[in-house]
Automatic annotation (TrEMBL):
It comes from Mycena maculata. It comes from the Eukaryota. Keywords: Hydrolase. One of its GO terms (molecular function) is glucan endo-1,3-alpha-glucosidase activity. InterPro entries: Glyco_hydro_71. This is Glycoside hydrolase family 71 protein.
Amino acid sequence: MMGNAYPYTVQNWASDIALASSKGLDGFVLNMGTESWQPGHVADAFSAAQSFGSNFSLGFSFDMTVMPCTSANDSTLLQSYITKYSNHSNVLQFNGKMLISTFSGETCQFGQGSVDAGWTVTVKTGMPPVHFIPSFFVDPSMLGNYQSIDGAFNWNGGWPQTQSNTSFATDQPFISALAGKTYLGAVSPWFFTHYSPQTFNKNWIYDFDNWLFSSRWEVLIQNREQVPIVEVITWNDYGESHYIGPIEGSQPNSQAWVNGFDHQGWLDIMEYYITYYKTGSAPSISQDRIFLWAKLYATNATAPDPIGPPKDANWAEDMLWAQFHLTNTADLTLTCGSSTQTFSSVPAGVSKQKLPLSNDCNISANITRSGSDAVSFAPAGMNFSTSPPSYNFNAFVAASPA
């Protein structure tokens, strides 16, 4: 999210690129707006990527909820980015063409007679070769009407839009409608936003239960032959609580539910699944690890918070979500106060377990073999409470040391 990178220097970009690359990501897609400072920051990002080497790419996702697109002149800003970076050594490519995406844009006509004509003139006519994969929020059956697109990004596919588990049923209509064009799949770990009507007026959750990040990756891996590209939503969207990178840059007034809720514990889970997705084979586990995440406050508790609980708050279970990476068979334990569960003789590999949370307690987990702890993990600050200071449904994420 470029808007959250306002204070970034080249060194900030370099640090993020190095961290992301080390976890298996092949690039960043930059969510672009219209602020006058953004072109300079994009140049910094490409400079950092170029210094890093040829293995990390940068692409563009034009945010059409903020970028104007009614007149022919509105094409100019988008075209300036495409023209400037189309031949850059680090530009994101697919099938030998510069990959361009959007957030929204399904009503943009750019002064032409239709949406399809508008996008054709903007990204195709007289432009460098572009592989255009927008995220149009339309019924997928309409995708066949757009000759300008080379594929589609199903942004909402990252989360169940109802109280349900993630499944490939949300992807299949897009794939069918695209009829062989490129399908870009979405994966995301969480969604909670808590803005008042006086600010962004966004206060809701999507269903993030049932190990969403891992479960969504597993769905995409099972169908990897139909999903040639996956986009992780997001590296740094703090306002919607689905960031996986460090909390840095400038937050969009989301400090109340973001500060103290680090998500980097998800990075090593992501690395495991990225390898699995790229190779088609489950990676071997070389070290016992414990990954834990949960919202820290009871769903039905009352908080002194004038904004009120988020829409669909009742979807969220009071549950600890755990993922164990095991080198050999082991006994697993999850504990929070009087709530405890032991899972015996769990085989080597990845094991997902959960623990109900009901009383104020401190969370811990263990991997045990032959009566001795191989890993004992009690993350500092991971404490469940029935007396929330606000309606904070963000996730606290922790990973045992690598």
